Amino acid sequence: MIKEHLDLVSVALIALSIAMYDVVIDLFFNILHLLFEVIHIMYEWFELGIEHSVEHLFHTSRHGSQVVTFYILMLIASLLMCWLWRVLPRLYKQIVQSVQHAWQRRKSQCAAYWVSLTLSNKLSLVSTAAGIVYLSTFLVM
């Protein structure tokens, strides 16, 4: 059922996300906030692990282990920054190339798909998009 009407489902989702852009933006920022919270918890767990390891291995006070942990984290951050400085330009070029190729491929696929549709299928696709936009305005207003 879904594979048979995948084009209608995708048009409906795109039209719905355009008509209800505030919900899409809110969902995006909620997911981004959740991601940052998880990353922060993982960082705190990692830092606490280093701090306890230093405290038990070297029998230091809490303040001493916090200072050593700070410098260990600064070393890790500087090594990570040096690695990113070397890797990011190549990664950026590869991403830009792949996005351009994907855009061209998808654009040609959509154009070929539109040409291959019959008039009744074209009308059903356009009417689905228009109907979804029309119905979603009731939810927004």
Describe the structure.
The protein has helices spanning 6-19, 21-58, 62-116, 119-140. The protein is mostly helical. The protein has one domain. α1 runs parallel beside α4 (119-140) and α2 (21-58) packs antiparallel against α3. The protein is elongated.
What value does the average pLDDT take? 90
Euclidean distance between termini CA atoms: 32 Å
How many runs of DSSP E, i.e. beta strands?
0
Rg over CA atoms, rounded to whole Å, is: 26 Å
**Shape by Cα distribution:** elongated
User: SS-based structural class?
Assistant: mainly alpha
Low-pLDDT regions: none
Helix share of residues? over 70%
Oligomer: single chain
**β content, as a range?**
under 5%
Total domain units:
1
| Count of separate DSSP helical elements | 4
What is the element string, with H for helices and E for strands?
HHHH
Summarize the structure.
The protein is mainly alpha-helical and 141 residues long.
Task: Jot down its keywords.
mainly alpha
Topology diagram in text:
Blueprint: H1 6-19, H2 21-58, H3 62-116, H4 119-140
Helix pairs in contact: 1-4, 2-3
